[in-house]
Design a protein that fits this description.
Helix content is 0%, strand content 36%. The protein is mostly beta strands. It has a single domain, classed as UDP N-Acetylglucosamine Acyltransferase, domain 1. It has an eight-stranded mixed beta sheet with strand order 1-2-3-6-9-12-15-18, with no helix packed on it. A hairpin with a 6-residue loop joins strand 2 and strand 3.
């Protein structure tokens, strides 16, 4: 008989509950929404409040934080950190070992190169140019 949930204690002593995603067995927090067609690698995490659309690929060791939205057909490489409340558009590609800052937006079909680090609030356009995603 297998366990339905996995509980993990964080650095500050809080316990989070995760379930294994049907496609890939990655850990999806209670309160996250991940489409059944998305692949979540067994060593990856999707946090509470995040939403992952259909046909998304989340590679090894990646972490999708609270409130992040990942659009349909997106590819998230290995060891990628997608910051809180970030938005990744349809069909975008985020290269391995990249760090996407909180509140950033990656446009539909945009590409983020391997080993990229985006500051919080960065906007990546389809042509690869960068600006700021948030206006005051």
């Amino acid at each position: 008989m297998s366990r339905t949930f996995v509980e993990i204690e964080g650095d500050r002593g809080q316990v989070s509950r995760y379930r294994k995603h049907v496609n890939g067995k990655g850990l999806v927090a209670v309160g996250a929404e991940v489409d059944p067609s998305a692949y979540v690698h067994p060593t990856s995490y999707v946090e509470t409040g995040a939403r992952v659309a259909q046909n998304v690929w989340i590679g090894q060791g990646s972490w999708i934080e609270r409130g992040a939205l990942v659009g349909a057909g997106t590819v998230i490489g290995a060891h990628v950190h997608v910051g809180e409340d970030s938005r990744i558009g349809l069909g975008a590609k985020v290269g391995s070992h990249s760090r996407i800052g909180a509140g950033s937006t990656i446009a539909d079909h945009a590409h983020v190169e391997n080993d990229s680090t985006l500051a919080s609030g960065t906007l990546v356009r389809t042509d690869g140019s960068r600006g700021y995603a948030r206006a005051a």
